[in-house]
Design brief:
The complex is a heterodimer of chains A (410) and B (164). Chain A is an alpha+beta fold and 410 residues long. In chain B, strands 2-1-6-5-4-3 form a six-stranded mixed beta sheet. In chain B, a hairpin with a 5-residue loop joins β4 and β5. Chain B starts with a helix and ends in a 13-residue tail after the last strand. The chains are: A alpha+beta (410), B alpha+beta (164). At the A-B interface, β13, α5, α6 and α7 of A face β1, β2 and α3 of B.
Chain lengths: 410, 164
């Protein structure tokens, strides 16, 4: 008998750990969040530059194909043959004229129409499709698509608000800070499974003060101090937010673009290329956005990445980092992006900390389904001009609860 | 190519380098790790996906011993991770060239698998792939001038904490 999964009386200052492990909550999230009125990141336009280019990706758990059609329009299809339900596209990326299911060779155009049905009239006049069968009704399921500055989002909802409105003015301004209309260039991907619920991964990027404690790489090597300037900004609904931080750098010399780390820590890097960065943006040396539901847009020094967090059952998520720069990057700037990427991803000197902590958080949630997380740092769900606050996490759960409605626990 | 006794001796020396390298890393002796490389060296871990699509991004990119020592120091002093043991198995080691050990180096290729044992879980496969390396003689000892590890899988099953 399902029981009501209740939020403790403290309200947003508590989060029941069962929401990270409960299968029925997970199913409801797929339906209400990922199939609901949300914009889901599906890729960069640069990945599908020419007509026929496609990449395989996911909206929530649902496999989809992002493709550029013959008229250069971007389309997103559910990767499912409308005949028997097999995935029509098994290649991860490529260029094609048709998507053909290997089972009975139903073929779909780049516009999603069913254009090929072998044996439609039978063989030698015998058998074939029913006269009532109408191919026009069996095209691939299409999602609504939008693009801004080379970043592509899709939605199962036809009446979702425009992306700009969805992000709100503050988040939009930080989105535009990195994706400012210059053509983007993908420089590679990192993909890894994190053994934690997708929400824990998103919340980690809404938590500004773990950085100075967990990430001792920053502190030990004197890159980051707990008193450094940090700002948290949350959108009006609480669902998306940005952390803006300013690391402790000083100019190596006047007139040089390169900034070297201050020697504040116990140790110094022998080779500062790992962190030596070239200032590209005003307002902070790093800005990390979390866009509802499951996109992280990372700008940390010269590393730029779209981090897509795909839910993979209640206890895991798959993180895909699409690193990018601009078509206009100098070779020197590209080298900085590549060298600094040592801090990120499955072998990242900073990210490993997060992957590992998230795995032990998930284990904790599994072991104590009746316990709740305590979010008492700061108050409310609004902006803060310092790092010791959990307001962005509370904002996330405020919106999450409004979308999910009453939860039950199996 | 005909194999001379000198070739066989070189192949045995190269194999010993890999054996010692794996032993040091399986013992989590990250301090020793940079010593397997020449001063001027390049170490990379990437995926088949990035390599095949011509993408320059790597999981790990160290150029020169100093960057290797920085990573080793960070792994030892700063990175938080659950306790784990690793086991490296190298197979199919082949010398692609035999000449130039004291100049540009000799090329090797091999397959690798790495198992990992974390907590109470059974040992599991962390990574498998292929290495394409360049080995030189540096002050009498064989060292990596280049080591490129290319992982087969698209999605890593977990963090790749220690070097390959």
């Amino acid at each position: 008998m399902p029981q009501k999964l209740s939020w403790p009386a403290e309200g947003l200052r508590r989060v029941p750990l069962a929401i990270y492990t409960d299968p029925s909550t997970y199913s409801r999230e797929q339906q209400r969040i990922f199939r609901g009125r949300s914009w889901n990141y599906v890729g960069l336009a640069a990945e599908v530059a020419r007509p026929g280019d496609f990449v395989r990706t996911y909206v929530g758990e649902v496999p989809v194909i992002l493709v550029r059609d013959r008229q250069h329009e971007l389309r997103v299809f559910v990767n499912r043959c409308t005949h028997r339900g097999a995935e029509v596209c098994q290649e991860e990326s490529g260029n094609t004229k048709l998507f053909t299911c290997p089972y009975h060779h139903w073929s779909f155009s780049l516009e999603g129409s069913l254009v090929g049905i072998p044996f439609r009239r039978g063989i030698k006049g015998e058998g074939g499709m029913s006269p009532y069968f109408e191919p026009a009704q069996h095209g691939l399921e299409q999602l609504k698509v939008t693009e801004r500055a080379g970043v592509v989002f899709a939605s199962h909802s036809q009446d979702v608000e425009p992306l700009e409105e969805y992000l709100g003015p503050t988040i939009l301004s930080y989105f535009d800070r990195v994706c400012d209309g210059r053509p983007l260039r993908v420089i590679g991907t990192m993909r890894h499974r994190v053994h934690a619920n997708w929400k824990l991964q998103i919340e980690n990027l809404k938590d500004p003060f773990h950085a100075a404690l967990l990430h001792s790489f920053f502190v030990t090597f004197g890159i980051w101090r707990s008193d450094q300037a940090t700002e948290v900004k949350v959108d009006a609904l609480g669902r998306s937010s940005v952390l803006v931080s300013t690391a402790s750098f000083k100019k190596a010399a006047d007139g040089q673009a390169e900034e070297a780390p201050q020697a504040q820590g116990e140790f110094r890097l022998e080779d500062s290329r790992l962190i030596a960065h070239e200032r590209e943006y005003e307002h902070g040396t790093g800005a990390i956005l979390t866009v509802w539901p499951n996109l992280i847009i990372l700008q940390q020094l010269n590393c730029l990445a779209m981090r897509h967090v795909r839910p993979d059952g209640p206890g895991a998520c798959v993180k895909t980092w699409t690193f990018f720069g601009y078509e206009s990057d100098t070779p020197e700037l590209l080298q900085k992006r590549l060298a600094q990427a040592n801090m990120l991803g499955p072998s990242g000197l900073v990210t490993i900390d997060d992957n590992e902590v998230l795995a032990i958080l998930q284990a904790g949630a599994s072991n104590s389904p009746h316990a709740a997380a305590v979010l008492e740092a700061g108050e409310g769900t609004g902006d803060a001009g310092h790092m010791v606050t959990e307001s962005a996490i509370r904002g996330f759960h405020q919106y999450y609860r409004s979308i999910m409605g009453e939860l039950t626990n199996d | 190519m005909t194999r001379t006794p000198e070739h066989r001796e070189l192949a045995a020396d190269v194999e010993l380098l890999y054996t010692n390298y794996c032993e040091a890393l399986d013992d989590a002796d990250t301090d020793r790790w940079p010593s397997f490389f020449a001063q001027e060296s390049r170490y990379r871990i990437t995926t088949r996906e990035n390599l095949d699509s011509g993408m320059p991004l790597c999981f790990v990119l160290c150029e020169g011993q100093a960057m290797l020592r920085d990573r080793a120091a960070a792994l030892k002093r700063t990175v938080f991770h659950r306790p784990r043991f690793q086991r490296r198995i190298i197979s199919g080691l082949r010398l692609k060239t035999f000449d130039g050990l004291d100049e540009s180096g000799i090329e090797t290729c091999a397959s690798f698998v790495v198992y990992e044992s974390v907590g109470d879980e059974p040992s599991s496969l962390l990574a498998c792939g292929r290495s394409m390396d360049v080995i030189v003689r540096d002050e009498g000892a064989l060292k990596f001038k280049q080591r490129l590890c290319v992982i087969d899988s698209r999605v890593m099953p977990d963090s790749l904490v220690f070097p390959l």
